[in-house]
Amino acid sequence: MRLPTDIVDEIRRIVRGRVDVNVPLRRLTSFRIGGPADAVAEPADSQDLARLLRYLQDRNVSRMLLGAGTNVLFHDAGFRGVVIRMTLMKGFEVHSNSPEHALITVRAGTPLPSVVARACASGWTGLEPLWGIPGSFGGAVMTNAGAGGVCTGDFLEQVRLLSISGETLLVKRTDIKYGYRSVELPAGTVVVEGTLRLPKGHADTIEANLQRARTRRRTSQPYDGFSAGCVFRNPSQDRPAGAIIDRLGFKGLTVGGAEVSRIHANFIVNRGNASSSDVVELIAKIREGVREHENIDLELEIRIVGKEACDVY
């Protein structure tokens, strides 16, 4: 551990949730890769989080927000600073439930699959294509997670944020700018909760939509290894990254314990013993090949953290 003991003690005093030190980050990510974090803090609520953010800002301590860890690659050397997890900040509140629509507020740490499941069970439609997407609701908001032509931002009415100084901000739908797997929010802010407007649907239609989403995901994505979802953004709607990578023959390519999935070429799978450098080398090989043969610079969809972003892959 590299954080001074007095800082760790103060963090433990501030946070009513959980604080651990020297936490192997491989335990907290779907890639199952990553060395230790100096400390991992799990605030109990938004007040807890606000106090922690103010303290870390005042002491100039490095920090990063981590949802369910489903789209991140940590370096094997770990993370020097505090990783903040939102896992204890869960909740689902129904504000209105009319014959036309429902308004629900979801806290950032709530797993996205549980949001989809509850919405569908309650007869609210729209989120069915997101079935099977892992991660937290806050992470889905921050990345505008989507599938099947549907994005999280399609249903957001407003988002409640915290600034790095612990101040609360409420951003309305009209003030949010969305992009492909991205959203523009005030710099340095943290998603605390978001309010969704979901239309009412018919049970049979919702179930049919869910079945299509299940079939699509189960037949097109790997389930036999650890991964972080799609590695690269699609260059365009009609040129998906996976199809380009597949066409160039990268499926099955391995470096150490990392392999380009044989099911979906935009997935890199940890076969059980992959290092961050294995994954980064595969990323570099793919990007180089696509640049050479397609004149396209693939952009990452996953986030690389640590050792200066793995030496900029």
Short note summarizing the structure:
The chain is an alpha+beta fold. The chain has helices at 5-14, 46-59, 112-121, 137-143, 203-220, 241-247, 276-294, 307-312; strands spanning 18-24, 36-42, 63-66, 72-74, 79-85, 92-97, 101-107, 146-147, 150-151, 156-162, 168-172, 177-179, 182-184, 190-199, 254-255, 258-260, 268-270, 303-305.
Q: In words, what does this structure look like?
A:
The structure is a single chain. By secondary structure, the chain is of the alpha+beta class. The chain folds into 3 domains: 5-85, Uridine Diphospho-n-acetylenolpyruvylglucosamine Reductase, domain 2 (2-Layer Sandwich); 92-220, Uridine Diphospho-n-acetylenolpyruvylglucosamine Reductase, domain 3 (2-Layer Sandwich), CATH 3.30.465.10; 241-312, Alpha-Beta Complex (Uridine Diphospho-n-acetylenolpyruvylglucosamine Reductase, domain 1). The protein contains 8 helices and 18 strands. The strands form 6 sheets. The protein has a 5-stranded antiparallel beta sheet with strand order 6-7-14-10-11. A 4-stranded mixed beta sheet has the order 1-2-5-3, covered by helices on one side. The chain has a 3-stranded antiparallel beta sheet with strand order 15-16-17. A hairpin with a 7-residue loop joins strand 16 and strand 17. The longest helix has 19 residues, at 276-294. The radius of gyration is 20 Å and the shape is globular.
